[in-house]
Amino acid sequence: METIDVVNDLTLNERLFVWLNFDGGVAMDIVMETISGAAMWIPLYCFILYAVWHRYGWRGVLTFALCLVLAMGVADMLCGIFKHSGLLKNLWADFPARHRPMFHSAVRDLAHVPSYAHGPYGTVSAHAATVAAMALMSALAIGRRWYTWFIVAVTLLICYSRIYLACHFPLDLALGVAVGVVSGGGMYILWKKLAAVVEKLR
Q1: Would the pTM of this model clear 0.90, i.e. be above it?
Q2: Would you give the DSSP letter of residue 79?
Q3: Within a domain: residue 105?
Q4: From CA 138, how far away is CA 141, in angstroms rounded?
Q5: What distance separates the 2 farthest-apart alpha carbons in the chain?
Q6: Rounded CA Rg of the chain
Q7: Count of domains for the chain
Q8: Three-state secondary structure call for residue 54
Q9: What angle (nearest 5°) sits at the alpha carbon of residue 135, between those of residues 133 and 141?
Q10: pLDDT for res 72
């Protein structure tokens, strides 16, 4: 009864986190940690570069790789503003950073936390921002419906892994995706312009 009363006092964002976060056991913890990591997705990055090379040639893939790195780097730095981390951590020093769910007083006792080896703040999610930037740029560049659905599913899976690991609230992830869309969209436009300039120089 006490737990129900605590949940009823939470915001919608916090309630949604509590509903989505659960203890799936050691095996599930390992799976979600793996999904949340970068190493598992190396084959996907290789496929993206191969697909872009196959469609646009080596000049296209080189400029794409450059713009993709910039998109993900910019997304990460923008998120760092709100978490007071990274190169732009002092840009908005007065911003009240929000703790990750695992450290948040309202939900930490209700959360399943596989590991506390994370920074204290979760808003805005850099994971969501960087994967969204990558997803948007690659989907627009590859231009295949099946790939678009696939990369959307990958993005949702990675975002959910962050909730499972108690690293982010749903709102943190939504804001991160928004940052990634802006960064990825902007760099996609830059890539198309760069590709056109390089093509003229041939």
Answers
A1: yes
A2: H
A3: yes
A4: 5
A5: 72
A6: 19
A7: 1
A8: helix
A9: 100
A10: 98
